[in-house]
Design a protein that fits this description.
By secondary structure, this protein is an alpha/beta fold. It has one domain: Metallo-beta-lactamase, Chain A (4-Layer Sandwich). The protein is built from seven helices and 20 strands. Strands 6-5-4-3-2-1-18-19-20 form a nine-stranded mixed β-sheet. Strands 7, 8, 9, 11, 12, 14, 15, 16 and 17 form a nine-stranded mixed β-sheet that branches. The N and C termini lie far apart (about 50 Å). The relative contact order is 0.13.
Length: about 350
């Protein structure tokens, strides 16, 4: 079966290229895209280069695709210097070969060999094997915790990879985490999610963390008994907001000001996760890629914080973050251009 880019992704990519009014030369710009339940981010550095594409792209389910935009829509994007594949599940890596056929991806970053489990979903196994075959003759970096990625203006530190975590706390971190359970979480890898590459992005005082689909037992090792990361400003919701990830001790360690959840209309975004998020002492807002019909109103952000309001009218809108060196940042909803400043 031919794997194709979704119309939503193409629209979002075109918007990324064609919106100079939203671009500022002194900001780190992060576009969280609607990948129909998958994960997709584009990061543009202050130098003006399109340096990173992060995450993965879900192949559309039967009937879910709204068609394709001409490949010429992508012509304005020349290439990405690096592409981070956090892990190899189909909703993250399933469309990477098709994407690379349309946009040059110069260097692939991943966690190394696929973590195999006998109970692995066959589609995830197939997607992982296809990705590893695809990158076999490409420029590739299999990273480990503590590695940094060379990038002008911005520091990217690898926090987790291949079920391993930082050995030493980052500068300014390392305090005991009172939220940690008395008994450490037992290692229980279910699939390749546990190997997810987790990164900390720093631009001046601004800090953003993204962990792919990292599972709770690896989260626990990163922040218990001491918090090796410290507080952050922006948290890209782990694992689409499901309860296999997003433990209470993890969020208590990171204490983000803003959370962006890359959920689908009916994927991710659990009630328990929302409650954990909202218990954060520093939390100001939660933004979501989709409104979730199954989540009660009291745990649902106001419409201005939701990029896509219904599956019936899903235009593939994005959420954009523009961060400055002083730690302040602005979040913008691509659906209605609603923006909020965080200082």
């Amino acid at each position: 079966m031919r794997i194709r880019l979704t119309a939503a992704f193409l629209v979002a990519m075109a918007a990324f290229v064609l919106m100079p009014l939203l671009q500022a030369a002194d900001t780190l710009d992060i576009y969280v895209l609607d990948a129909e339940g998958g994960k997709a981010q584009i990061v543009k550095t202050p130098s003006g280069r399109r340096d990173f594409s992060v995450g993965g792209f879900r192949p559309p389910a039967t009937g879910a695709s709204r068609g394709l935009k001409p490949t010429a829509k992508l012509a304005a994007i020349r290439a990405f210097d690096y592409f981070i594949s956090t892990h190899y599940d189909v909703d993250h890596a399933g469309n990477i070969p098709a994407l690379a056929a349309r946009i040059p991806l110069k260097v692939f970053i991943d966690h190394g060999p696929m973590i195999f489990d006998p109970k692995m979903n066959p589609r995830n196994k197939q997607a992982g094997e296809a990705y590893l075959t695809f990158v076999a003759d490409k420029k590739r970096m299999s990273v480990k915790p503590g590695d940094t990625i060379p990038l002008k203006d911005v520091k990217v530190t690898i926090l987790t990879s291949n079920e391993q975590v930082l050995a030493k706390a980052l500068a300014g971190a390392g305090k005991p985490n009172a939220a940690c359970p008395a008994t450490p979480t037992i290692a229980a890898p279910a699939d390749d999610n546990s190997g997810s590459v987790g990164e900390l992005w720093e631009y001046g005082k601004f800090k953003m963390a993204d962990f792919g689909d990292l599972l709770r037992w690896v989260e626990n090792r990163l922040v218990c008994p001491t918090n090796k990361v410290g507080n952050i400003d922006l948290y890209i919701s782990n694992h689409h907001g499901v309860t296999l990830s997003n433990s209470a001790e993890f969020l208590a360690a990171l204490e983000p000001k803003v959370i962006i959840m890359d959920n689908g209309d009916r994927k991710g975004n659990a009630v328990e996760t929302q409650k954990i998020y909202r218990s954060g002492k520093r939390l100001q807002d939660i933004w979501q890629m989709h409104k979730s019909p199954a989540i009660p109103a009291e745990l649902t952000p106001a419409d201005n914080f939701l990029a896509n309001l219904s599956a019936a009218d899903d235009r593939g809108y994005w959420i954009k973050v523009s961060a400055r060196k002083d730690g302040s940042f602005t979040v913008t909803n691509g659906r209605n251009n609603f923006s909020k400043e965080y200082r």
